[in-house]
What does this fold into?
Amino acid sequence: MLRLSNFVFAMLICLLPLLVSAQQVSITGTVKDSKGTPVPAASITIQGTNQGVSASTDGSFTIMVPTANSVLVCTAVGYKEKVIPLTGNVINIILEESVSTLNDVVTTGYLRQKKSDITGAISSVRNKEFKDQPVANLAQSIQGKVAGINVTSPSGTPGAGLLVSIRGASNPLYVVDGVPMISESNSSLSTSYNTDGEEQGSGQNVSSISDINPDDIESIEILKDASSAAQYGARAANGVVLITTKRGRNGKTEFGFNSFTGLQNVSRTIPFLSSSEFVALVEDARAQDLKLYNQDPSLFGDDFDPALLTNPLPESWSTGVNTNWLDEIFRTAPISNLQLSARGGNEKTRFFISGNYFDQQGIVIENQFKRGSFRMNIDNKVSDRITIGANASFAYTRNQRSFNDNTYTGIVTNAIGASPLQPVYEDGTYSDYTAYQASWLSDNPVKSAKEITAITASYRFIGTVFAEAALLPNLRLRSSFSTDYSNLNDDQFFAAITTDAEAVGGKALKGIYRSTTWINENMVTWQPELKGASTLTALGGFSMQDTRSNQTSLVGIGFPPGSGLQTISSAASVQGRPVDEYPAYWGIASFIGRVNYAYDSRYLLSISARYDGSSRFDPEGRWGLFPAFSAGWVISKEKFFGTSKWLSSLKLRLSYGLTGDQEISDFEYRSNWTGAVYDGVSGLRPRNLGNPDLTWQRNKMLNIGTDFEIMNGKLSGSIEYFRGNRTELLTQALLPATSGFPGITSNAGNILNTGIEFSLNAYIVKNKNFTWNTSFNFTYLKNEILSLYQDGEQLSAYRDLFPTHVLKVGESVGSFIGVEYLGVNPDNGDPVFNDLNKDGIIDENDEKVLGKAIPDWFGGWTQNFQYKNWDASIVTQFSVGNKVYNLIRGTYQTLGWSDEGWDEDYNLFQVYANNAAIVNNRWRNPGDQTDIPRASLVFQNYLQNSSMFLEDASFFRFRTVSVGYTIRPKTKKVFNNLRLYAQVQNLAVLTKYYGFDPEVSSNGGDAPETAGIDYAAYPQARTITFGVNFNF
Amino acid sequence: MNNYPFIKKVFVPLLLILFVSATGCNKLLNLTSPNEVGDDDLFNSVEGLRNARVGMYNTLQARDYYGAYFPLIAEAYTDNGTTGGYDVIDLNEIAARSLTPSNIYITQSYNAIYNTIYTANKIIENIDNVPDLDEAEKRMILGEALFVRGMAHFDLLRFWGQHWDKTSPYGISIVTSTANATTAVPRSTVEVSYTQIMDDLHTAEDLITEDNGNQYISPSAVAAMLARVHLYHGDLSEAADYAISVIDNGAYSFFPTGEVGKIYTDRLTSESILELKFEAQNQSFYNAATYLRDDALRPDILFMVSSNLNDFFASRVGDTRADLVDFVNNDLSIEPDGRSQKYRGETAKDNSAFVLRLAEMYLIAAEANGRINGLSYLNDLRTIRGLEALSDEDVADDDTYLSAILDERRAELNFEGHRIFDLARTGLVDANLGEGVNPIMPIPQREVAATNGAVEQNPGY
It folds into this structure.
């Protein structure tokens, strides 16, 4: 395949010199605004074609036009479009300022279109809206900014994966300058382990999107409906996030220096009981039990000795220590970013280069994320007809990770519930956690943090070379060849003194992951000059993608004591089977066609189709056809509409289409046997049951929308209704065990997402000195399962945990199940649960759907202020109707329960865990009205899988608050501008949620069906930064 | 158009590119997996069949089958054991002997056993089509596959079926083919289940003639398994005959008194009839689940021996097997329970699964022969393990005798996956584990759901 692509590409290169130029007229000119300031990057195109140039930094341009009576169209962001019939060879264009966004150019895949011509559902975010955000992952910086897209941080750990859902469909396709990126977490450490090193579930995720430097991005487009996403149809079923990086401009070379530095600390914490309160809780638990025992000893069983409740607490309970464990593992951590870029060029060649260094220390001790990256984007005009170019970016990230985030042996998890009577250090070393009062711990959390190192280092190269040729003045061919190469190295080391490795004298995990994607795309665009007001763009082509990855992992045990050596080569033995796998091995071939027709920019129509083949399906079901159409009607251009001063623009849009999804494992269509060993002999064992009927998942998306502008953009917005129906869902269908397998990959099920998106942008004040701009968006989303292969399948977020979620027809994906908690009986302090089947026993038969992880409503509200040279902004974000299963609360609200932590003489050594201050509201005396039950040593007055711990996680967050001052010198000889700013990220979150943060999810984001579990995830940071943007 | 004389030169190559790419697509899309071999290609050669045979043994080693959990759950559910873990409800349920059908451990074991059956069935179905297969090898591999299928069905029957009641409709879903794998298979009656198991084992008995070591299925292993199945089924004379045939064939012998621990440290000893072998490169889960490390805490250990077993051994003065349970060197959080010492070796974690042992044959012979003829077998075992022989007066009636045998089974076979089955088949669950304790496991909820109820739930769940 590679050889073939090379051949194709080589052939194209050979063809290029054949294209000779025809007779043309050269026009030069300048573009300035009403004040006479040059407008750089203004775009000048020949009407009816997509041929054009952009103005250089001093506003000048030169364009070749086919005839002397051509008409030029000049557009620039922030200005009104201007149409200029040619009158001579030199023209000076004066643009009028405008707040209208209709002329903004939006990247829609292989084409760039004016916003006013768009008929699909696309949201666009510009660089200025997300730059300078102190976050590692670019998706985090658009949180709350775009209707229809819900970005949730499952954990506050730097570089963590995010749960990104577009209109209810998770895990969109990320495309960087035309290259579809591998975006999943590929680290072999992205799992959680128990102390034996056995995998318990998916844990902290790293996002490979963090390999992209947000500073390099010009704009982010989010393609939400089928018609827009059709260009990337083969993998666009869950929406597309299109990332366009900065490119060069002709003119003087402009340098940019962006830097910020700041401090982070934990934004919300959980208050825990002090030593004396902890002891008081245990004493209350004993006293309450004693009272109960005196009333009815039979409750306590035959073997029970009440001495347990009356013996004085052993001496170990009076250490005089009062450790706040969360303070011991959290810290105030620095963050900094340094970016230097240059962009410039001339008529022939333009370039953008940049270098970036980002360093974020985690708010949990020992945790750190670093990224260094380079980028180079070059375009060269070989001749009037031929352009060639290349994009290349390289990023190195080093993530020193927080061990077992969001699982029950992690650092934060251990700190939660640790006894305040336990010191951190003792006798010159870490205190022995087994000698203190909380049996919950699996290790001293400070020891875990310091003696277990987990580093994931990633090397990422994304690059493209392309050539574009005008075969005819209106027929262009673009051919590109791209690669996405990723190399990931995981190194985890457990020192011999940690619980995890003490039996084996130190343990090291090594993981090596390598992935290579090759993509070849060839597109022909035809834009004929039509008579009258019609315009037509037709596009056709094909693309081929091939992805292969390979993962090797090793475990070494037994390291030379005191040597400090951690490499596998110094291990006494390599334990377990070294795993060498090919997690990805697939290819896609696609044929693509699209026709856009517009009449007078009033009636807009777009029809597209693609025909995709995937190696993941049986040859019979391999190819899928995915058509889409969209139409727009610009009512405000109709004669009957007149020229309304008030409603300056009104457009109706309709789109419907299909996209395909092939996101399953490779080779699932046939039954496979994989490597196995017995008695030192290798052989093969069955891996899966093949499903030859597998085919594309087909997602049908209907979108009806309207865009409006009032008073030339003073107020603008859109309202959209969408109905996305994911049919022939690719799922792991539940099989009877008698088949030999728990499941089979199938096309089964149907999920419906319906919703409304609303966005509004208004200039409340706009005058010479002061601008106040506000934008607001919200999305209402209803996710409903219409059919399933198996109704009622229960899922667990962790491998050895009771089911936490259910997939049920009529309910939302990510629905929680459990027993309903009714509150505390005020007479005796007992928790009361809803005995659904009235059998007198509270068990799983009393479970029902308790809520869901997906919010009903979400959105954001942003304010931007500009006063003379001052600017300020406030970005907020909200989410309503989502719940979180706060499972870790089953540790810190145990109310003094002891897991038989007493000796044969009934002296109490241990209870389960220290508790959070919330238990101070517990029931103590008959008549107390509270929802926290009575303390008890013997009885568990809590139930983990009940609504007792299912909390409303709706929130309103002040995401970013910033103030800046810009200096613009009169003469630009020294520098162009200098902006200084201060910013607070995540200033405050208003929520009823009791845990660290309501934005939390157990499995690092890639499994919406088990989302919304809090097992003491790494909390979110509040970050204060000071920064500078300097352009010279 | 005349301005573009090269148009043909452009479009012809363009069409050519399209054509070439269209044909190239097939190459791009027809990939071969670097990790796996397709089902269709496996049984095309003798090598492929041998690979599948190795794979079949490997499926027996799954964590949730003989890799550890299946036998250990059968112990932790009884007075021999209890569970630890971080307050994990599913583990707590096992120790409390009050399971719910969604219990993840029960579900995973159920799935793992049927995975083994699938593998055996694949071999049985395809062996006739393997070209150039030597007849002796064919008989051997087919025999092994039938043995594995019979044993796996028997393990299902004794865990999920009312195996002690020949008239019960609550047998198991019997799978003898991989065709229509996704179709629900309703449960057979207990008697039909036994018939299928016996058929497979008896056919295996005819086919297996070689002994390749006690990590492989040998003629003695088949006989030993038949002794066990007949005992459960109540065919006492057959059970006795098979057990005695193994005892008498001379291939197996006891360690001298005091060296019983060598069974577990030396591995593949003369006391083992069928023992699944693990290596450091192919570990079992016994050590991690029962010992882990010297100062492990209760939450770290999934399956502990219960204090009840401590009391039991306290009454058996001289029993050398008492050394294989440790109630002393444990963290306070584990006390008063303890840890089994049968699966030590924290570094290599290559502990064997002891499927069939010589001692069990003595116990079967003792039980199946009855009090008068069987006592000598019981005493043989007792004396070699350091106990006094019992006299006829000591076991004056059948009940006393049965209880002596069950005690001996408890002492010998604890933490090897016998206790719950022994109590269930002798009707002593209530007496030993508490009133109302269900002698069998619930059919996993997911199985009932996946078959839309075609597989019926067990009574009591």
Notes: Chain B touches chain A through 103 residues (CB under 8 Å). DSSP finds 19 helices and seven strands in chain B.
